[in-house]
């Protein structure tokens, strides 16, 4: 518990940074698990919907200390970020209109825009190795930006294309390496506490998998069913439970892909928050430990705060945040405990690897859409919808350009791309500059 608490407290910077922290502590420092097994677990987690870093923590915790180890590792990975974002959400709704807080979030938006653009470049450079992958990314971008296609459909089509391409043996669909791991001497499985052999509890056991899956499925869906029965489908808590449960199933491709889907639905469909507030939530998630997907907690908090259905707003908001976190992260344990004992059968499966590669390529297009969407709403005060052949997309009014926001975003991009500055220093520096600007003007 001490080690997993330490990992959770240091887990800033998105999945790549979080996985690097786990690798450094669990493989290099503690030697609890070897390089080969760590990377195999990571490859499996990347095939799953949801945050791969949190699922990797649950997987390794389960491998080392059975079910209780997986629960402790996975829960502790989420808990610090949940508490931090909950506290910051209170500040946001209570003091958000104070000049200091407004300036803080003004600067944070500009920095977040640079971070999202960096994510496009980072993921794109890793996966867009040939024209087929670039074509998938371009098609995904056109589909979601211009045609307003739903994110789950884009993932499904990309996965099918990749699976078929992998089965056909096409070299364009051969995957490459995930997030990677730290350089240096390789720690082999034989030299670790776990050893080379497979623990007895990690061997395939259909009875155990069905039992644990049934329990987790009940814990996940029981609140959704109760809310539907008692409050009906139109209540804000029911909508939060059903929407984020659906999201937990279909959101492949990492946190930024999840953000694109949540922004599309929470802002455009449900009207739970405004585009600028989505950026605020991402800024909170970027500056707190834990999975970046914790931004959904902020969305659920605001949705319930503004539609309290008879409860005090802060009580409703707190319940909304807890409900969102519950239905988002509980399925992660289901995927791990149900599938982990059978993972060895996935090792070297070319078709599944190709499907993941195609999904990741599509995600580049989705993240590009997210970056453009954030840029439009950060840098321009007036945005208008353009409709072509029944589909609509947003275009900025050029005269409404916010010059201070553009200068701050350009400075953040320069720091990130030219000077290779760390994400956390850039976020805090921009927040400080934004606060000073608002207070002085």
UniProtKB/TrEMBL annotation:
Keywords: Cell membrane, Membrane, Transmembrane, Transmembrane helix. It is found in: Cell membrane. It holds the Pfam family Chromate_transp. It is a multi-pass membrane protein. The chain crosses the membrane at residues 71-92, 104-124, 136-164, 212-231, 243-263, 283-305, 314-338, 350-376, 397-417, 423-440. InterPro entries: Chr_Tranpt_l_chain, Chromate_transpt. Belongs to the chromate ion transporter (CHR) (TC 2.A.51) family. This is Chromate efflux transporter.
